[in-house]
Amino acid sequence: MSSVINNPSSCQFIGGQWQPGHGKGFESINPANGEVIWCGNGANAEQVDTAVKAARSAFYNWSAMPLAERLAIIEAFGAQLGEHSEAMARLIAEETGKALWESRTEVAAMTGKIAISIRAHSERTGTVENPMPGARAFIRHKPHGVVAVFGPYNFPGHLPNGHIVPALIAGNTVLFKPSELTPKVAQFTVELWQKAGLPAGVINLLQGEVETGKALAGHPGIDGLFFTGSSNTGHLLHQQYAGQPGKILALEMGGNNPLIVKDVANVNAAVHDIIQSAFISSGQRCTCARRLFIKKDANGDAILAKLIEASRQIRVDEPFAENQPFYGAMISAKAAAAMVKAQTDIQSLGGISLLELKQPDLALGFVTPGIIDVTHVKALPDEEHFGPLLKVYRYDDFDAAIDEANNTAFGLSAGLLADNEADYDHFFRRIRAGIVNWNKPITGASSAAPFGGIGASGNHRASAFYAADYCAYPVSSVEASSVSLPASLSPGLSI
Ligand SMILES: NC(=O)C1=CN([C@@H]2O[C@H](COP(=O)(O)OP(=O)(O)OC[C@H]3O[C@@H](n4cnc5c(N)ncnc54)[C@H](O)[C@@H]3O)[C@@H](O)[C@H]2O)C=CC1
Ligand SMILES: O=C(O)CCC(=O)N[C@@H](CCC(=O)O)C(=O)O
Predict the structure, then answer these.
(1) pTM, whole model, 2 decimals?
(2) Which side of the chain, N or C, has fewer Cβ within a 10 Å radius?
Protein backbone atom coordinates (compact mmCIF):
# COMPACT_ATOMS: atom_id res chain seq x y z
CA MET A 1 0.00 0.00 0.00
CA SER A 2 1.11 3.55 -0.55
CA SER A 3 2.07 5.13 2.71
CA VAL A 4 0.12 8.31 3.25
CA ILE A 5 2.28 10.27 5.57
CA ASN A 6 4.70 11.67 7.22
CA ASN A 7 7.74 11.72 9.34
CA PRO A 8 7.21 9.16 12.07
CA SER A 9 10.24 10.34 13.97
CA SER A 10 8.36 13.63 14.53
CA CYS A 11 5.33 11.94 15.96
CA GLN A 12 4.36 14.24 18.83
CA PHE A 13 2.22 17.28 18.08
CA ILE A 14 2.61 19.78 20.89
CA GLY A 15 1.53 23.41 20.76
CA GLY A 16 1.16 23.23 16.97
CA GLN A 17 4.66 21.76 16.36
CA TRP A 18 5.60 18.26 15.28
CA GLN A 19 8.55 16.98 17.26
CA PRO A 20 10.21 13.68 18.14
CA GLY A 21 9.35 11.95 21.37
CA HIS A 22 11.98 11.87 24.11
CA GLY A 23 10.70 8.70 25.76
CA LYS A 24 10.91 5.01 24.94
CA GLY A 25 10.90 3.83 21.32
CA PHE A 26 8.04 1.73 20.01
CA GLU A 27 6.79 0.32 16.71
CA SER A 28 3.58 -0.33 14.88
CA ILE A 29 3.38 -3.67 13.10
CA ASN A 30 1.01 -4.63 10.33
CA PRO A 31 -0.58 -7.74 11.87
CA ALA A 32 -1.46 -9.19 8.47
CA ASN A 33 2.15 -9.47 7.26
CA GLY A 34 4.36 -8.73 10.26
CA GLU A 35 6.01 -5.67 8.67
CA VAL A 36 7.01 -2.72 10.80
CA ILE A 37 5.04 0.19 9.34
CA TRP A 38 5.92 2.91 11.83
CA CYS A 39 8.42 3.58 14.58
CA GLY A 40 8.94 6.49 16.89
CA ASN A 41 9.63 7.50 20.47
CA GLY A 42 6.98 8.06 23.11
CA ALA A 43 6.40 11.41 24.79
CA ASN A 44 8.17 11.62 28.14
CA ALA A 45 6.76 13.29 31.25
CA GLU A 46 8.33 16.63 30.38
CA GLN A 47 6.70 16.62 26.93
CA VAL A 48 3.37 15.70 28.50
CA ASP A 49 3.76 18.69 30.80
CA THR A 50 4.60 21.00 27.89
CA ALA A 51 1.55 19.74 25.99
CA VAL A 52 -0.76 20.31 28.97
CA LYS A 53 0.54 23.87 29.22
CA ALA A 54 0.06 24.41 25.48
CA ALA A 55 -3.52 23.15 25.73
CA ARG A 56 -4.13 25.41 28.71
CA SER A 57 -2.84 28.49 26.96
CA ALA A 58 -4.94 27.71 23.85
CA PHE A 59 -8.07 27.15 25.92
CA TYR A 60 -9.22 30.71 26.50
CA ASN A 61 -9.19 31.76 22.84
CA TRP A 62 -10.67 28.50 21.62
CA SER A 63 -13.52 28.49 24.12
CA ALA A 64 -14.19 32.21 23.62
CA MET A 65 -14.36 31.82 19.84
CA PRO A 66 -17.97 32.11 18.57
CA LEU A 67 -19.45 28.66 18.13
CA ALA A 68 -19.97 29.20 14.39
CA GLU A 69 -16.25 29.79 13.95
CA ARG A 70 -15.33 26.68 15.93
CA LEU A 71 -17.80 24.69 13.89
CA ALA A 72 -16.32 25.98 10.64
CA ILE A 73 -12.96 24.49 11.62
CA ILE A 74 -14.54 21.23 12.73
CA GLU A 75 -16.43 21.03 9.43
CA ALA A 76 -13.16 21.73 7.61
CA PHE A 77 -11.77 18.66 9.37
CA GLY A 78 -14.79 16.76 8.02
CA ALA A 79 -13.92 17.99 4.54
CA GLN A 80 -10.31 16.84 5.00
CA LEU A 81 -11.56 13.43 6.07
CA GLY A 82 -13.77 13.32 2.99
CA GLU A 83 -10.87 14.23 0.75
CA HIS A 84 -8.54 11.67 2.34
CA SER A 85 -11.12 9.01 3.16
CA GLU A 86 -9.57 6.26 1.06
CA ALA A 87 -6.08 6.98 2.40
CA MET A 88 -7.45 6.87 5.94
CA ALA A 89 -9.32 3.62 5.30
CA ARG A 90 -6.22 1.98 3.82
CA LEU A 91 -4.17 3.14 6.77
CA ILE A 92 -6.67 1.69 9.26
CA ALA A 93 -6.66 -1.59 7.34
CA GLU A 94 -2.87 -1.67 7.23
CA GLU A 95 -2.35 -0.85 10.89
CA THR A 96 -5.16 -2.88 12.49
CA GLY A 97 -5.57 -5.76 10.02
CA LYS A 98 -9.23 -4.79 9.57
CA ALA A 99 -10.76 -5.65 6.19
CA LEU A 100 -10.73 -2.71 3.81
CA TRP A 101 -14.53 -2.72 3.36
CA GLU A 102 -14.93 -2.36 7.11
CA SER A 103 -12.17 0.22 7.44
CA ARG A 104 -14.14 2.31 4.95
CA THR A 105 -17.18 2.12 7.20
CA GLU A 106 -15.01 3.32 10.08
CA VAL A 107 -14.02 6.42 8.11
CA ALA A 108 -17.67 7.00 7.19
CA ALA A 109 -18.51 6.88 10.91
CA MET A 110 -15.80 9.47 11.59
CA THR A 111 -17.24 11.83 8.99
CA GLY A 112 -20.82 11.22 10.14
CA LYS A 113 -19.80 12.01 13.71
CA ILE A 114 -19.42 15.69 12.91
CA ALA A 115 -23.03 16.59 11.99
CA ILE A 116 -24.36 14.30 14.73
CA SER A 117 -22.12 15.92 17.36
CA ILE A 118 -23.17 19.41 16.28
CA ARG A 119 -26.81 18.40 16.70
CA ALA A 120 -26.06 16.71 20.03
CA HIS A 121 -24.24 19.80 21.29
CA SER A 122 -27.28 21.92 20.57
CA GLU A 123 -29.91 19.43 21.80
CA ARG A 124 -28.11 18.22 24.93
CA THR A 125 -26.05 21.21 25.95
CA GLY A 126 -27.58 24.15 24.15
CA THR A 127 -28.91 27.34 25.73
CA VAL A 128 -32.37 27.43 27.29
CA GLU A 129 -34.16 30.53 28.56
CA ASN A 130 -36.83 29.98 31.19
CA PRO A 131 -39.48 32.62 31.91
CA MET A 132 -39.13 34.52 35.18
CA PRO A 133 -40.57 37.80 36.42
CA GLY A 134 -38.23 40.80 36.40
CA ALA A 135 -35.16 38.94 35.10
CA ARG A 136 -34.03 36.33 32.60
CA ALA A 137 -33.15 32.78 33.62
CA PHE A 138 -30.73 30.84 31.48
CA ILE A 139 -29.31 27.35 31.32
CA ARG A 140 -26.04 27.38 29.44
CA HIS A 141 -23.03 25.08 29.22
CA LYS A 142 -19.32 25.66 29.48
CA PRO A 143 -16.39 23.49 28.46
CA HIS A 144 -14.37 21.84 31.23
CA GLY A 145 -11.06 23.16 29.93
CA VAL A 146 -8.16 20.85 29.07
CA VAL A 147 -9.22 17.25 28.53
CA ALA A 148 -7.30 14.06 27.78
CA VAL A 149 -8.67 11.55 25.25
CA PHE A 150 -7.46 7.95 25.44
CA GLY A 151 -8.26 5.71 22.51
CA PRO A 152 -8.33 1.94 21.92
CA TYR A 153 -6.84 0.10 18.96
CA ASN A 154 -9.94 -1.54 17.57
CA PHE A 155 -11.41 1.66 16.09
CA PRO A 156 -8.31 3.87 16.06
CA GLY A 157 -10.05 6.56 14.01
CA HIS A 158 -13.71 6.46 15.00
CA LEU A 159 -13.58 5.98 18.76
CA PRO A 160 -11.07 8.73 19.70
CA ASN A 161 -12.90 10.92 17.16
CA GLY A 162 -16.08 10.26 19.14
CA HIS A 163 -14.53 12.06 22.12
CA ILE A 164 -12.42 14.63 20.26
CA VAL A 165 -15.13 16.11 18.02
CA PRO A 166 -17.68 16.79 20.79
CA ALA A 167 -14.93 18.00 23.13
CA LEU A 168 -13.76 20.57 20.58
CA ILE A 169 -17.29 21.66 19.68
CA ALA A 170 -17.93 22.38 23.36
CA GLY A 171 -14.77 24.51 23.50
CA ASN A 172 -12.32 22.21 25.29
CA THR A 173 -8.74 21.78 24.23
CA VAL A 174 -7.51 18.23 23.84
CA LEU A 175 -4.53 16.01 24.64
CA PHE A 176 -4.91 12.92 22.52
CA LYS A 177 -3.17 9.74 23.67
CA PRO A 178 -3.91 7.04 21.09
CA SER A 179 -3.33 3.34 21.51
CA GLU A 180 0.36 2.51 21.14
CA LEU A 181 -0.75 -0.15 18.65
CA THR A 182 -2.17 2.42 16.22
CA PRO A 183 0.13 5.49 16.20
CA LYS A 184 0.07 5.87 12.44
CA VAL A 185 -3.70 6.35 12.20
CA ALA A 186 -3.51 8.83 15.09
CA GLN A 187 -0.76 10.81 13.41
CA PHE A 188 -2.69 11.00 10.15
CA THR A 189 -5.84 12.11 12.02
CA VAL A 190 -3.99 14.96 13.72
CA GLU A 191 -2.40 15.98 10.42
CA LEU A 192 -5.92 16.40 9.06
CA TRP A 193 -6.86 18.57 12.05
CA GLN A 194 -3.81 20.67 11.36
CA LYS A 195 -4.78 21.01 7.69
CA ALA A 196 -8.29 22.01 8.78
CA GLY A 197 -6.77 25.06 10.49
CA LEU A 198 -7.19 24.12 14.13
CA PRO A 199 -5.23 26.73 16.11
CA ALA A 200 -1.98 25.65 17.79
CA GLY A 201 -2.42 23.93 21.14
CA VAL A 202 -6.12 23.09 20.62
CA ILE A 203 -5.26 19.48 19.85
CA ASN A 204 -2.01 17.93 21.02
CA LEU A 205 -0.93 14.42 20.16
CA LEU A 206 0.98 12.47 22.80
CA GLN A 207 2.11 9.17 21.40
CA GLY A 208 3.60 6.47 23.56
CA GLU A 209 3.09 3.36 25.58
CA VAL A 210 1.77 3.00 29.08
CA GLU A 211 4.36 5.42 30.63
CA THR A 212 3.01 8.25 28.45
CA GLY A 213 -0.55 7.31 29.38
CA LYS A 214 0.31 7.33 33.08
CA ALA A 215 2.09 10.68 32.85
CA LEU A 216 -0.92 12.21 31.13
CA ALA A 217 -3.63 10.64 33.31
CA GLY A 218 -1.70 11.68 36.43
CA HIS A 219 -1.00 15.24 35.33
CA PRO A 220 -2.62 17.68 37.74
CA GLY A 221 -3.28 20.19 34.94
CA ILE A 222 -6.04 18.30 33.16
CA ASP A 223 -9.71 18.92 33.89
CA GLY A 224 -11.05 15.67 32.53
CA LEU A 225 -10.23 12.35 30.93
CA PHE A 226 -12.34 10.60 28.30
CA PHE A 227 -11.33 6.98 27.99
CA THR A 228 -12.29 4.15 25.65
CA GLY A 229 -10.44 0.95 26.34
CA SER A 230 -10.25 -2.13 28.48
CA SER A 231 -12.05 -2.56 31.74
CA ASN A 232 -8.75 -3.16 33.56
CA THR A 233 -7.28 0.18 32.51
CA GLY A 234 -10.60 1.93 33.08
CA HIS A 235 -10.73 0.58 36.64
CA LEU A 236 -7.16 1.75 37.28
CA LEU A 237 -8.08 5.23 36.08
CA HIS A 238 -11.19 5.22 38.24
CA GLN A 239 -9.06 4.44 41.30
CA GLN A 240 -6.55 7.09 40.29
CA TYR A 241 -9.34 9.69 40.02
CA ALA A 242 -10.90 8.79 43.38
CA GLY A 243 -10.93 11.81 45.64
CA GLN A 244 -10.87 14.24 42.72
CA PRO A 245 -14.55 15.11 42.32
CA GLY A 246 -13.68 18.20 40.30
CA LYS A 247 -12.39 16.16 37.37
CA ILE A 248 -14.71 14.62 34.84
CA LEU A 249 -13.95 11.02 34.00
CA ALA A 250 -15.82 9.25 31.19
CA LEU A 251 -15.09 5.53 30.92
CA GLU A 252 -16.20 3.43 27.95
CA MET A 253 -15.01 -0.10 28.67
CA GLY A 254 -15.49 -3.69 27.60
CA GLY A 255 -18.29 -6.18 28.00
CA ASN A 256 -19.12 -9.87 28.37
CA ASN A 257 -22.20 -9.48 26.26
CA PRO A 258 -25.03 -12.03 26.11
CA LEU A 259 -27.24 -12.89 23.15
CA ILE A 260 -30.23 -15.16 23.77
CA VAL A 261 -32.01 -17.08 21.03
CA LYS A 262 -35.52 -18.40 21.58
CA ASP A 263 -38.02 -19.79 19.06
CA VAL A 264 -36.95 -18.21 15.78
CA ALA A 265 -38.53 -19.51 12.58
CA ASN A 266 -35.96 -17.96 10.22
CA VAL A 267 -32.87 -19.99 11.08
CA ASN A 268 -30.64 -18.34 8.46
CA ALA A 269 -31.54 -14.85 9.64
CA ALA A 270 -30.80 -15.82 13.25
CA VAL A 271 -27.42 -17.26 12.23
CA HIS A 272 -26.64 -14.08 10.29
CA ASP A 273 -27.37 -11.90 13.34
CA ILE A 274 -25.30 -14.17 15.61
CA ILE A 275 -22.29 -14.04 13.27
CA GLN A 276 -22.64 -10.31 12.82
CA SER A 277 -22.78 -9.96 16.62
CA ALA A 278 -19.94 -12.32 17.52
CA PHE A 279 -17.40 -12.30 14.72
CA ILE A 280 -17.46 -8.91 13.00
CA SER A 281 -14.09 -7.13 13.23
CA SER A 282 -12.62 -10.52 14.23
CA GLY A 283 -14.58 -10.19 17.46
CA GLN A 284 -12.75 -7.02 18.37
CA ARG A 285 -15.72 -4.83 19.22
CA CYS A 286 -16.67 -4.05 22.76
CA THR A 287 -20.29 -4.75 21.77
CA CYS A 288 -19.59 -8.23 20.37
CA ALA A 289 -21.64 -11.13 21.67
CA ARG A 290 -19.40 -13.28 23.86
CA ARG A 291 -22.05 -15.57 25.33
CA LEU A 292 -24.76 -17.17 23.23
CA PHE A 293 -27.76 -18.79 24.91
CA ILE A 294 -29.58 -21.31 22.75
CA LYS A 295 -32.69 -23.21 23.81
CA LYS A 296 -32.37 -26.97 24.19
CA ASP A 297 -34.92 -27.97 21.56
CA ALA A 298 -35.13 -28.81 17.86
CA ASN A 299 -35.15 -25.13 16.83
CA GLY A 300 -32.07 -24.48 18.98
CA ASP A 301 -30.31 -27.54 17.54
CA ALA A 302 -31.01 -26.33 13.99
CA ILE A 303 -29.70 -22.84 14.72
CA LEU A 304 -26.55 -24.14 16.38
CA ALA A 305 -25.80 -26.61 13.57
CA LYS A 306 -26.24 -23.91 10.94
CA LEU A 307 -24.16 -21.45 12.99
CA ILE A 308 -21.24 -23.88 13.19
CA GLU A 309 -21.45 -24.58 9.49
CA ALA A 310 -21.73 -20.92 8.44
CA SER A 311 -18.95 -19.87 10.83
CA ARG A 312 -16.67 -22.52 9.37
CA GLN A 313 -17.23 -20.89 5.97
CA ILE A 314 -16.38 -17.35 7.12
CA ARG A 315 -13.70 -15.91 4.89
CA VAL A 316 -10.73 -14.66 6.94
CA ASP A 317 -8.05 -13.08 4.81
CA GLU A 318 -5.76 -10.17 4.05
CA PRO A 319 -7.43 -6.79 4.64
CA PHE A 320 -6.69 -5.82 1.03
CA ALA A 321 -7.63 -9.14 -0.62
CA GLU A 322 -9.50 -8.54 -3.82
CA ASN A 323 -12.14 -11.01 -2.74
CA GLN A 324 -12.81 -9.24 0.54
CA PRO A 325 -12.90 -11.33 3.71
CA PHE A 326 -15.60 -11.00 6.35
CA TYR A 327 -12.79 -10.11 8.69
CA GLY A 328 -9.04 -9.68 8.49
CA ALA A 329 -6.34 -10.07 11.12
CA MET A 330 -6.62 -9.32 14.81
CA ILE A 331 -4.54 -6.40 16.03
CA SER A 332 -1.42 -8.52 16.65
CA ALA A 333 -0.03 -12.02 16.67
CA LYS A 334 0.00 -11.71 20.48
CA ALA A 335 -3.73 -10.93 20.59
CA ALA A 336 -4.39 -13.90 18.31
CA ALA A 337 -2.33 -16.20 20.53
CA ALA A 338 -4.25 -14.92 23.57
CA MET A 339 -7.48 -16.11 21.94
CA VAL A 340 -6.01 -19.57 21.38
CA LYS A 341 -4.98 -19.62 25.03
CA ALA A 342 -8.43 -18.46 26.16
CA GLN A 343 -9.94 -21.37 24.23
CA THR A 344 -7.51 -23.86 25.81
CA ASP A 345 -8.25 -22.47 29.27
CA ILE A 346 -12.01 -22.89 28.76
CA GLN A 347 -11.46 -26.42 27.45
CA SER A 348 -9.48 -27.25 30.56
CA LEU A 349 -12.49 -26.13 32.63
CA GLY A 350 -14.73 -28.55 30.72
CA GLY A 351 -15.72 -26.49 27.67
CA ILE A 352 -16.38 -28.52 24.53
CA SER A 353 -15.11 -27.01 21.32
CA LEU A 354 -17.78 -27.02 18.58
CA LEU A 355 -15.60 -25.13 16.11
CA GLU A 356 -11.97 -24.75 17.00
CA LEU A 357 -10.42 -21.29 16.84
CA LYS A 358 -7.04 -21.56 15.10
CA GLN A 359 -4.12 -19.25 14.50
CA PRO A 360 -2.66 -20.61 11.25
CA ASP A 361 0.56 -18.55 11.42
CA LEU A 362 1.95 -17.79 14.87
CA ALA A 363 3.74 -14.71 13.54
CA LEU A 364 0.52 -13.05 12.32
CA GLY A 365 -2.81 -11.88 13.73
CA PHE A 366 -5.17 -14.16 11.79
CA VAL A 367 -7.51 -16.46 13.67
CA THR A 368 -10.46 -18.48 12.47
CA PRO A 369 -13.72 -18.19 14.44
CA GLY A 370 -14.24 -20.42 17.46
CA ILE A 371 -17.40 -21.70 19.12
CA ILE A 372 -17.25 -23.50 22.43
CA ASP A 373 -20.01 -25.09 24.49
CA VAL A 374 -19.71 -24.02 28.12
CA THR A 375 -23.08 -25.28 29.36
CA HIS A 376 -21.47 -27.63 31.88
CA VAL A 377 -18.51 -25.47 32.83
CA LYS A 378 -18.67 -24.51 36.46
CA ALA A 379 -17.24 -21.17 37.51
CA LEU A 380 -16.30 -19.83 34.10
CA PRO A 381 -14.38 -16.59 34.79
CA ASP A 382 -16.40 -13.47 33.95
CA GLU A 383 -13.87 -12.16 31.43
CA GLU A 384 -14.06 -10.34 28.13
CA HIS A 385 -12.33 -12.44 25.46
CA PHE A 386 -11.68 -9.73 22.88
CA GLY A 387 -11.69 -11.84 19.74
CA PRO A 388 -13.78 -14.30 17.69
CA LEU A 389 -14.48 -16.90 20.38
CA LEU A 390 -18.15 -17.45 21.14
CA LYS A 391 -19.25 -19.31 24.25
CA VAL A 392 -22.50 -21.24 23.94
CA TYR A 393 -24.89 -22.13 26.75
CA ARG A 394 -27.80 -24.49 26.09
CA TYR A 395 -30.80 -23.68 28.29
CA ASP A 396 -34.17 -25.18 29.19
CA ASP A 397 -35.71 -22.23 30.96
CA PHE A 398 -35.87 -18.69 29.53
CA ASP A 399 -35.76 -16.98 32.94
CA ALA A 400 -32.74 -19.05 33.96
CA ALA A 401 -31.04 -18.00 30.71
CA ILE A 402 -31.77 -14.33 31.42
CA ASP A 403 -30.45 -14.74 34.97
CA GLU A 404 -27.24 -16.26 33.60
CA ALA A 405 -27.03 -13.52 30.94
CA ASN A 406 -27.13 -11.01 33.81
CA ASN A 407 -24.56 -13.01 35.78
CA THR A 408 -21.70 -10.72 34.83
CA ALA A 409 -20.04 -7.66 36.29
CA PHE A 410 -20.29 -6.03 32.86
CA GLY A 411 -23.36 -4.55 31.18
CA LEU A 412 -22.60 -3.14 27.77
CA SER A 413 -24.80 -4.81 25.14
CA ALA A 414 -27.36 -7.61 25.14
CA GLY A 415 -29.81 -9.01 22.66
CA LEU A 416 -32.69 -11.36 22.07
CA LEU A 417 -33.50 -13.19 18.86
CA ALA A 418 -37.11 -14.34 19.23
CA ASP A 419 -40.26 -14.15 17.13
CA ASN A 420 -42.59 -13.50 20.06
CA GLU A 421 -42.82 -9.88 21.16
CA ALA A 422 -43.95 -10.89 24.64
CA ASP A 423 -40.60 -12.67 25.06
CA TYR A 424 -38.83 -9.45 24.18
CA ASP A 425 -40.93 -7.41 26.62
CA HIS A 426 -40.01 -9.89 29.34
CA PHE A 427 -36.33 -9.87 28.36
CA PHE A 428 -36.17 -6.08 28.15
CA ARG A 429 -37.62 -5.69 31.65
CA ARG A 430 -35.07 -8.08 33.18
CA ILE A 431 -31.85 -7.64 31.26
CA ARG A 432 -29.22 -5.21 32.54
CA ALA A 433 -27.21 -3.47 29.81
CA GLY A 434 -26.84 -0.08 28.15
CA ILE A 435 -27.66 -1.46 24.67
CA VAL A 436 -30.56 -3.89 24.39
CA ASN A 437 -31.60 -5.09 20.92
CA TRP A 438 -34.32 -7.35 19.57
CA ASN A 439 -33.87 -9.37 16.37
CA LYS A 440 -30.90 -7.26 15.34
CA PRO A 441 -27.16 -7.75 15.84
CA ILE A 442 -25.83 -6.29 19.07
CA THR A 443 -22.89 -4.67 17.28
CA GLY A 444 -23.12 -1.66 15.00
CA ALA A 445 -24.50 0.89 17.44
CA SER A 446 -25.57 4.22 16.00
CA SER A 447 -23.70 7.45 16.76
CA ALA A 448 -27.11 9.14 16.95
CA ALA A 449 -27.95 7.24 20.16
CA PRO A 450 -26.27 7.14 23.56
CA PHE A 451 -23.54 4.51 23.76
CA GLY A 452 -22.38 3.13 27.07
CA GLY A 453 -22.76 0.35 29.56
CA ILE A 454 -23.40 -0.23 33.21
CA GLY A 455 -21.42 -2.13 35.83
CA ALA A 456 -17.82 -2.77 34.81
CA SER A 457 -18.56 -1.45 31.30
CA GLY A 458 -18.77 2.23 32.15
CA ASN A 459 -19.30 4.93 34.74
CA HIS A 460 -22.64 6.31 33.58
CA ARG A 461 -21.09 8.75 31.13
CA ALA A 462 -22.52 7.39 27.91
CA SER A 463 -20.74 8.39 24.74
CA ALA A 464 -21.86 8.86 21.08
CA PHE A 465 -24.92 11.18 21.11
CA TYR A 466 -24.57 11.75 24.85
CA ALA A 467 -20.84 12.59 24.64
CA ALA A 468 -21.96 16.21 24.60
CA ASP A 469 -23.01 15.74 28.24
CA TYR A 470 -19.52 14.97 29.55
CA CYS A 471 -17.85 17.60 27.36
CA ALA A 472 -19.50 20.55 29.12
CA TYR A 473 -20.91 21.47 32.50
CA PRO A 474 -24.23 23.24 33.01
CA VAL A 475 -24.35 26.83 34.23
CA SER A 476 -27.56 28.27 35.53
CA SER A 477 -27.91 32.07 35.53
CA VAL A 478 -30.49 34.62 36.61
CA GLU A 479 -29.78 37.92 34.87
CA ALA A 480 -31.18 41.45 34.80
CA SER A 481 -29.77 44.46 32.98
CA SER A 482 -29.68 46.55 36.16
CA VAL A 483 -30.23 46.05 39.87
CA SER A 484 -33.72 46.96 41.11
CA LEU A 485 -35.56 46.83 44.39
CA PRO A 486 -38.24 44.15 44.60
CA ALA A 487 -41.87 45.32 44.84
CA SER A 488 -41.95 44.17 48.46
CA LEU A 489 -39.04 43.56 50.80
CA SER A 490 -38.57 40.42 52.90
CA PRO A 491 -39.85 40.68 56.51
CA GLY A 492 -37.34 42.38 58.81
CA LEU A 493 -35.68 44.38 56.04
CA SER A 494 -35.86 48.11 55.56
CA ILE A 495 -33.76 49.73 52.84
N1 LIG B 1 -17.21 0.67 25.58
C2 LIG B 1 -16.63 1.14 24.49
O3 LIG B 1 -17.04 2.15 23.93
C4 LIG B 1 -15.47 0.42 23.89
C5 LIG B 1 -14.60 -0.34 24.65
N6 LIG B 1 -13.52 -0.94 24.08
C7 LIG B 1 -12.66 -1.81 24.87
O8 LIG B 1 -11.32 -1.50 24.63
C9 LIG B 1 -10.52 -2.67 24.80
C10 LIG B 1 -9.55 -2.78 23.67
O11 LIG B 1 -8.78 -1.62 23.63
P12 LIG B 1 -7.29 -1.53 24.22
O13 LIG B 1 -6.56 -0.59 23.34
O14 LIG B 1 -6.77 -2.90 24.47
O15 LIG B 1 -7.50 -0.89 25.65
P16 LIG B 1 -6.37 -0.50 26.73
O17 LIG B 1 -7.10 -0.31 28.00
O18 LIG B 1 -5.23 -1.44 26.72
O19 LIG B 1 -5.80 0.88 26.20
C20 LIG B 1 -6.61 2.04 26.03
C21 LIG B 1 -5.74 3.27 26.19
O22 LIG B 1 -5.31 3.42 27.54
C23 LIG B 1 -3.87 3.54 27.59
N24 LIG B 1 -3.40 2.94 28.83
C25 LIG B 1 -3.20 1.62 29.08
N26 LIG B 1 -2.84 1.45 30.37
C27 LIG B 1 -2.82 2.67 30.94
C28 LIG B 1 -2.55 3.17 32.27
N29 LIG B 1 -2.22 2.34 33.26
N30 LIG B 1 -2.66 4.49 32.49
C31 LIG B 1 -3.01 5.32 31.51
N32 LIG B 1 -3.26 4.92 30.24
C33 LIG B 1 -3.19 3.62 29.97
C34 LIG B 1 -3.40 2.85 26.34
O35 LIG B 1 -2.11 3.28 25.99
C36 LIG B 1 -4.48 3.25 25.34
O37 LIG B 1 -4.25 4.55 24.85
C38 LIG B 1 -11.48 -3.81 24.90
O39 LIG B 1 -11.59 -4.20 26.23
C40 LIG B 1 -12.80 -3.22 24.43
O41 LIG B 1 -13.92 -3.85 24.98
C42 LIG B 1 -13.23 -0.77 22.76
C43 LIG B 1 -14.07 -0.03 21.98
C44 LIG B 1 -15.27 0.58 22.46
O1 LIG C 1 -19.50 5.83 19.32
C2 LIG C 1 -20.37 5.84 18.42
O3 LIG C 1 -20.52 6.76 17.63
C4 LIG C 1 -21.34 4.71 18.32
C5 LIG C 1 -20.85 3.49 18.97
C6 LIG C 1 -20.12 2.58 18.02
O7 LIG C 1 -19.64 2.97 16.99
N8 LIG C 1 -20.06 1.32 18.38
C9 LIG C 1 -19.51 0.32 17.54
C10 LIG C 1 -18.09 0.02 17.83
C11 LIG C 1 -17.57 0.17 19.23
C12 LIG C 1 -16.89 -1.09 19.69
O13 LIG C 1 -17.65 -2.05 19.78
O14 LIG C 1 -15.68 -1.18 19.88
C15 LIG C 1 -20.41 -0.89 17.61
O16 LIG C 1 -21.37 -0.87 18.37
O17 LIG C 1 -20.22 -1.81 16.85
Answers:
(1) 0.97
(2) C
For residues 290-294, give the mean pLDDT.
98
Residue nearest (by alpha carbon) to ligand 1 atom 38: 230
Domain membership of residue 2 (yes or no) is no
> How many Å separate Cα 397 from the centre of its chain?
34
Is the domain of 244 the same as that of 263? no
- Pocket flag, ligand 1, residue 254 (CB < 6 Å): yes
Q: Would you give the end-to-end CA distance of the chain in angstroms?
A: 80
Inter-residue contact 110 to 161 (CB < 8 Å): yes
Q: What residue spans of 174-266 are helical by DSSP H? A: 183-195, 210-217, 231-240
pLDDT digits (tens, 9 = 90+) for 229-265: 999 999 999 999 999 999 999 999 999 999 999 999 9
Give the span between the Cα atoms of 249 and 67, in whole angstroms. Answer: 24
| Overall number of domains in the chain | 2
Residue 130's CB: how many other CB atoms inside 10 A?
A: 10
Angle between the N-to-C axes of helices 421-430 and 398-405, in degrees from 0 to 180, rounded to the nearest 10: 40
Distance CA 402, CA 443 (A): 19
Is 59's C-beta closer than 6 angstroms to any atom of ligand 1? no
- The ipTM assigned to this model is 0.95
Question: Is 162 annotated for ligand binding?
Answer: no
pLDDT digits (tens, 9 = 90+) for 30-65: 999 999 999 999 999 999 999 999 999 999 999 999
Counting ligand 2 atoms within 8 A of each CB, the residue from 113, 286, 440, 471 with the most, and so the one to mutate, is 286
195 and 81 within one domain: yes
Mean pLDDT of the chain: 97
Peptide bond into 6 cis (omega under 30): yes
What is the domain-level CATH number for residue 241? 3.40.605.10
> Looking at ligand 1, which atom is closest to the CA of residue 217?
31
Q: Point out the residues that are catalytic.
A: 252, 286
Interval 305-319: pLDDT, tens: 999 999 999 999 999
Q: What is the pLDDT of residues 407-430, one digit of tens each?
A: 999 999 999 999 999 999 999 999
Strands (E), 229-311: 248-252, 257-262, 289-295
Of the ligands numbered here, which is closest to the C-alpha atom of 148? Answer: 1
